[in-house]
Amino acid sequence: MRGSSREYDESDVRVRPNRRGSRPRTKDRPKHEDAVTARVVSVDRGRWRTVVGEGTAQQRAVTAMRARELGRSPIVPGDLVGLVGDVSGREGSLARIVRIQERSSFLRRSADDDDPTERPLVANVDLMVMVTALANPEPRGGMIDRCLVAAYVAGIDALLVLTKSDLRSPDEFLTSYAPLGLEHVVTHREPAEQASDPQAPEIVGLEELRERLSGRVSVLIGHSGVGKSTLLNALVPGTDRAIGVVNDVTGRGRHTSSSALAMQLPEDDGWVIDTPGVRSFGLGHVDPDELIDAFADLSVLAEQCPRGCSHLEDAPDCALDALVEAGEAGTAGPARLVSYRRLATALQKNDPWDL
Question: Closest Cα to residue 222, out of 128, 155, 149?
């Protein structure tokens, strides 16, 4: 219009000029102020299973899909989200996830140490439960070290659960983690001849574990075959997580859980999230400078090293070797230093500033 001072922008251009009535695009997104809060419990082929009305008489399961405006933002078990649409939970109903609430924690891993691509696991957990067997399969301290690093970076507590203590004493294995003050629970299945129900023998140590999990949001991580599913089936009756066996040749378990699943503890406001059995726990997403802080026993000794020390085996004037050998500050010994250096060397390959 002649004489008009109005400035035009792209919203004045019809997206489909040949179609009458096409409305101009807008950058404004709906606020969805009527969205209800739900907790994500599982993910399956583009659908998210959630719980609405958590802890109330109206608690119900609602299936939802991701709203387009969220793009490719990861949505994982433990996430608190906003739902709109049909949140009745009726069979065949489908809601939309339109919002992901701010997370208190976000646990991630990578496929390998030389792969910086993050793989989100769970959100809003405050306790990582590292499950390992004392025998069949053999325990692997490296896996525990990696989990401790990931827990430190995510800002969550850690608990070590040692299963199958009827096959081997935990004392020797625990000496490696005593200096860290790492809390632990030792469990084993009661012999069938001593159990009140031979078909479902009790788990010694289960009540102590239940107390540690009460009122918390926990994630269980461990290799296949270590007894994770056995513990979960006892903690949450009716879960029926598949229980695997250990291969006699490889000494490793077979994957039985294919996806993460959050389960509510009975008569408790706590949640426990089961993750698929892992064969590796990559730390490609971790900054190498954060690693020494995750090894609390070594971090104290590293203060005596020269400024800028890499703490690696070839680092000049590194004080860690002599201090660890002398048993300073109650360190667990050379094995911890070897574990740290192995991870640090792998992480350096991912450091974009390490040219």
Answer: 128
| The predicted structure's pLDDT at residue 186 | 97
- All domains in the chain, ordered by first residue: 36-100 (2.40.50.140), 106-274 (3.40.50.300), 295-348 (no CATH)
CA torsion sign for 303, 307, 311, 317 is negative
pLDDT of residue 26: 56
Name the 3-class secondary structure at 318. Answer: coil
DSSP code, position 124: S
Is 0.70 surpassed by the pTM of this model? yes
Q: For the chain, report the end-to-end CA distance as a whole number of angstroms.
A: 60
How far, in Å, are 291, 300, 313, 336 from residue 305 at the CA level? 16, 10, 13, 17
Residue 355: both structure tokens together = 């040219």
Alpha-carbon distance 112 to 285, whole Å? 10
In angstroms, what CA-CA distances link 290 with 74, 137, 145, 190?
24, 31, 14, 42
138-175: pLDDT as tens digits: 998 888 888 888 898 889 999 999 999 999 999 999 98
Exposure b/e, 59-96, CB count within 10 A at least 16 = b:
eeebbbebbeeeeeeebbbbbbbbbbbebebeeeeebb
pLDDT at 285: 77
161 three-state secondary structure: strand
**Predicted confidence (pLDDT) per residue in 109-127, tens digit:** 876 666 666 788 999 999 9
The rounded distance, in Å, linking the Cα atoms of 152 and 298 is 14
- The whole-angstrom separation of Cα 265 and Cα 238 is 11
223 vs 136: CA distance, rounded Å: 11
Of 234, 170, 182, nearest to 206 (Cα)?
Answer: 234
CA distance 204 to 186: 8
| CA-based nearest residue to 148, from 263, 297, 333, 252 | 297
Query: DSSP string of 268-296?
Result: SS-EEEE----S--B-TTS-HHHHHHHSH
Asked if residues 77 and 264 have their Cβ atoms less than 8 Å apart, the reply is no
